[in-house]
Amino acid sequence: MFGSPVEVKRQDGGFLRIKRLYLKNFRNYSEADIDFSYSTSLIYGDNAQGKTNIIEALFMISTGKSHRTNNVNELIKHGKNHFRVLLDFEDNGYDQNIEIRYIKGKRKELFINGVKKDKISDMLGVIPSVLFSPESILYVKGSPGERRRIMDIVLCQVKKDYLINLQRYNRIIKNKNIVLKQMQIGRSEEKQLDVWDEEASMTGFKIIKERQMLTEELESRMNGIIKGISEGKERISIKYKTFKEIDKIQNGHKDLLETIINNREKEIETGSSIYGPHRDDMEILLNGKNARMFCSQGQQRSIALSLCVAVMGLMEEKLGKKTLLLLDDVMSELDEKRQKFLLELIGNRQTVITTTEKTKYNALSQNNISFIKVSSGKIIEENA
Ligand SMILES: Nc1ncnc2c1ncn2[C@@H]1O[C@H](COP(=O)(O)OP(=O)(O)OP(=O)(O)O)[C@@H](O)[C@H]1O
Ligand SMILES: [Mg+2]
Predict the structure, then answer these.
(1) Across the strands, what pairs with 324?
(2) Atom of ligand 1 at shortest distance to CA of 77?
(3) Which of 11, 67, 186, 236 lies 20 to 30 angstroms, CA to CA, from 175?
């Protein structure tokens, strides 16, 4: 009836607006129906009332995953055995909806406009979103896994092939690790490894290439942003760290294969795959120094903010539509200048904000904003 939203979205200026979120047995919500038809929705309430749970539901409808857990069972309301998250939205003038249903022990199911989709990944790119929260600082100071995660979130939303390669690669590594473990007890032969190494290097190198291009794009965007919030004193560089220095790679995946084979003994000894994109990192440097180790908390927060904004710009360019901006409890951690920067950013994008202190957002235009009070998993709307 509506056609695929993925096809619709690229046709004109990309008008996208979320309208209503329905939750059933999701986290601490038995049932909730939330009006999101305003440009800005300000969700406020005391601690532990269910503000982030709403952000989590929106993030999941956008990326297929929670930003807080890999265990989907945690999302089901305690004592229940299923949840539903349904979002009504408008894309290029068409009313549409997207829904995730999950029953304990089964697979998540995706419905777009009521039609069940084969793959949950069909949702990617439909509601592109960017989340900025206090935990975003982990993109800077956390482990390499955090930075791989943000790279993967972005690339999965903007490139279907990337997700397919990533899933394929993860399967290859899982299978290869089984062979490595079997070899430790003499149950597998080395020639079995040859097959997996070849596969891992071919698929793995595709991922490396995409991530490397992404880091280049992010670097220039982040520098533009950081200039605006740090009086032009600071310069960011980002290096994709992989099995070998990027500019020394001459024969593409063959170089990766060579590294893997040269380290076979080590891999057998540890029973795990040591080289490839699953071990890579995106090193962030501020004025030439590793931001993870040498930056102050405030600097790390600014870098994280610039990274999220850079991601937003990049996704908007690639997908041809504005992203949904999710700001979970971030205002109180930023100084005045950065707060102002953030408020300006909100200006022309649909934004969902959570806060314990409503007054922090007094500077926002009162025209198209809704105030949503949350208390013990219940919604109290007070539209202005
Ligand atoms: N599966 C679940 N079933 C029922 N309640 C849950 C479930 N998961 C989390 N909760 C409850 O949800 C509440 C936390 O919600 P949330 O993280 O959204 O709080 P918040 O309003 O963002 O608080 P804060 O201001 O501290 O960030 C807690 O009371 C927690 O016990
Ligand atoms: Mg919260």
Answers:
(1) 129
(2) 3
(3) 67
Q: Which of the residues in the chain have pLDDT under 70?
A: 1-14, 365-366, 381-384
Token pair 């880091």 in the structure block, residue: 215
Give the position of tokens 């999101």: 36
Q: Atom 26 of ligand 1 has which residue's CA nearest to it? A: 47
Q: Which residues line ligand 1 (CB under 6 A)?
A: 27-28, 45, 47-53, 74, 76-78, 329, 356
Element (H, E) at 177: helix 160-184
pLDDT, tens digit, 9 for 90 and up, residues 189-236? 888 999 999 999 999 999 999 999 999 999 999 999 998 887 778 899
* Residue nearest ligand 1's atom 8 by CA: 27
199-229 core/surface letters (b: 16 or more CB in 10 A; e: else): bbbbbbbbbbbbbbebbebbbebbbebbeeb
CATH class entry, domain 1-127+348-384: alpha beta
Ligand 1: which residue has its CA nearest to atom 15? 50
Q: Which atom of ligand 1 is nearest to the CA of 54?
A: 18
Ligand minimally distant from the alpha carbon of residue 50: 1
Residue 256: predicted pLDDT? 98
Domain map (residue ranges) of the chain? 1-127+348-384
CB-based contact 342:12 (threshold 8 Å): no
- Taking the centre of ligand 1 as the mean of its atom positions, its distance from the CA of residue 52, in whole angstroms, is 7
Model confidence pLDDT, tens digit, residues 78-117: 999 999 999 999 998 899 999 999 999 999 999 999 999 9
CA 329–ligand 1 middle distance (angstroms)? 14
| Dihedral sign of CA atoms 285, 291, 294, 300 in order | positive
pLDDT for the residue numbered 364: 77
DSSP 114-166: TEEPS-GGGGTTTS-EEEE-GGGGHHHHS-HHHHHHHHHHHHHHH-HHHHHHH
